[in-house]
């Protein structure tokens, strides 16, 4: 799986800016995540920033100090090129909607379209400018917890949807009160496939009530079968159970809070795990914080090196034979 963090986005936007035309006078973002990329790009290019609908209505979100004496209408009217930006492109729906809004507008001829990451570059993926192709499956730090395909993902509860219990909250009556009263940390925008928790099965009614009360939708709730907290501690199989569900369901991603469990789940399941505590994608066999090598890089690195060595050996052999023939 390909993954890009907010730090990756910032770095890639700077690299992208070096390849963009010099006549971009306004950067406009497609809400919501497109505004994140657009803001970074506008700051780097030192151009005015707008959201798309505001731009078409003659508004800017910010123009910087060098534009402070000019009206938004004047800045927009004098712009040579306006770049409409989204963070990524997959199906092309957001881009198609943006083009529909622009169609027939007085600014249409001066508007170009760009994305930082495209899944491919054909059909609806065609844009004027892009930084790089990032194929699916992929996840981005800024929207992974509300991903379009959460319905095929596994997610922990404590530490992800709410905070972890602390001290005496981790057992008995205090834990029951914790389940009832803890506020949500995250309410996913979409239905989650499998909520996989180390909460005991006996807490299912309370957990289901809490999830319903906060509008958290899911297909299946998987809980720990142990009869007591002591039995669960003795089993010490949190990561193993979560990894088993991950493999059984063929989910594309597991979202876990604890970094040690995330590493263990990834190793057992042989699949990536997004760890919310460190905001990183954890890959099997890869230390936390270090990016996984892309499969195509691994596959083709050796043949290229072999080909180069073979060509060097061939040139050396030809020179050797030529030298012998002259003797």
Automatic annotation (TrEMBL):
InterPro entries: HAD_sf, PRTase-like, PRTase_dom. It comes from the Bacteria. This is Phosphoribosyltransferase. The lineage of its organism: Bacteria, Bacillati, Actinomycetota, Actinomycetes, Micrococcales.
């Amino acid at each position: 799986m390909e993954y890009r963090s907010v730090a990756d986005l910032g770095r890639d936007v700077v690299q992208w800016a070096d390849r963009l035309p010099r006549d971009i006078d306004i950067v406009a973002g497609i809400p919501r995540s497109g505004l994140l990329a657009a803001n970074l790009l506008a700051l780097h290019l030192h151009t005015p920033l707008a959201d798309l609908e505001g731009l078409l209505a003659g508004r800017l979100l910010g123009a910087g100090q060098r534009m402070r004496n000019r009206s938004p209408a004047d800045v927009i009217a004098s712009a040579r090129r306006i770049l409409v930006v989204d963070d990524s492109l997959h199906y092309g729906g957001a881009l198609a909607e943006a083009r529909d809004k622009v169609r027939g507008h007085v600014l249409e001829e001066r508007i170009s379209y760009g994305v930082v990451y495209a899944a491919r570059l054909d059909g609806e993926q065609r844009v004027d400018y892009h930084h790089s192709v990032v194929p699916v499956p992929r996840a981005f730090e800024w929207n992974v917890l509300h991903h379009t395909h959460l319905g095929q993902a596994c997610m922990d509860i404590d530490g992800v949807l709410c905070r972890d219990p602390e001290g005496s909250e981790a057992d008995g009556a205090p834990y029951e009160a914790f389940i009832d009263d803890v506020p949500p940390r995250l309410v996913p925008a979409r239905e989650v496939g499998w909520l996989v928790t180390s909460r005991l099965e006996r807490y299912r009614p309370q957990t289901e009530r809490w999830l319903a009360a906060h509008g958290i939708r899911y297909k299946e709730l998987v809980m720990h079968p142990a009869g007591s907290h002591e039995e669960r501690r003795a089993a010490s199989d949190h990561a193993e159970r979560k990894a088993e569900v991950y493999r059984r369901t063929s989910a594309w991603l597991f979202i876990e809070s604890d970094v040690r469990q995330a590493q263990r789940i990834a190793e057992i399941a042989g699949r990536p795990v997004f760890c919310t505590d460190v905001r990183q994608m954890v890959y099997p066999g890869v230390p936390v914080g270090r990016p996984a090598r892309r499969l195509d890089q691994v596959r083709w690195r050796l043949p290229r090196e072999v080909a180069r060595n073979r060509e060097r050996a061939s040139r050396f052999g030809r020179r050797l034979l030529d030298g012998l023939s002259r003797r």
